Amino acid sequence: MSIKHGLLALLERGPAYGYQLRSSFEESTGATWPLNIGQVYTTLTRLERDHLVRALPENSQGQRPYAITDTGRAALAVWFSTPVASTDRPRDELAIKLALALTTPGVDVPAVVQTQRVATIRSLQEYTQLKKQAGEHDTAWTLILDSMIFRAEAETRWLDHCEASLVRETVKAPTHDAPVVDGVVTEHREASRP
């Protein structure tokens, strides 16, 4: 997620100081990705350095609001008009974990899959419950929940596929007691599932 562009989008609504930006961001995204106030101020400093925002005079409470610049508006327009590439997203930790589990001796891979499935289904139930509680007019929050629900459903289908593939590979794999003639396994026997 680009905090930089998120803050620019919020500043497009009007000048705001750090705590207002954090509250607005969390309000807009249903607090799905809470922001650390330190991240907000660090990002504002970088945006100011890059001339994408400018600091305004402090208000009577000592808070310094920021305003988006024309350069910032141009950067925001580019962000909105550019699709998110898969390479821009963080690594898929689950795929990496399963790949490494398959190649690491002693790992109970079906247990790894099952543990993930339980967690994913629990998340899916939570997202579905949150969607039921969401107001009809909170379109932004509802769309975020839809995204999370679709992702959880896709992950569950992928885990089903992983489990089926593991079963197929286990069935094809030779057992230790399969007959060997001149160093060649002569038949495949169904191995018990690990």
TrEMBL record:
Gene3D superfamilies: Winged helix-like DNA-binding domain superfamily/Winged helix DNA-binding domain
UniProt xrefs under InterPro entries: Tscrpt_reg_PadR_C (IPR018309), Tscrpt_reg_PadR_N (IPR005149), WH-like_DNA-bd_sf (IPR036388), WH_DNA-bd_sf (IPR036390)
Membrane-crossing segments per the record: none
Transcription regulator PadR C-terminal domain location: 91-166
Domain annotation Transcription regulator PadR N-terminal: ranges: 7-77
Protein name: Transcriptional regulator, PadR-like family
Organism this protein belongs to: Stackebrandtia nassauensis (strain DSM 44728 / CIP 108903 / NRRL B-16338 / NBRC 102104 / LLR-40K-21)
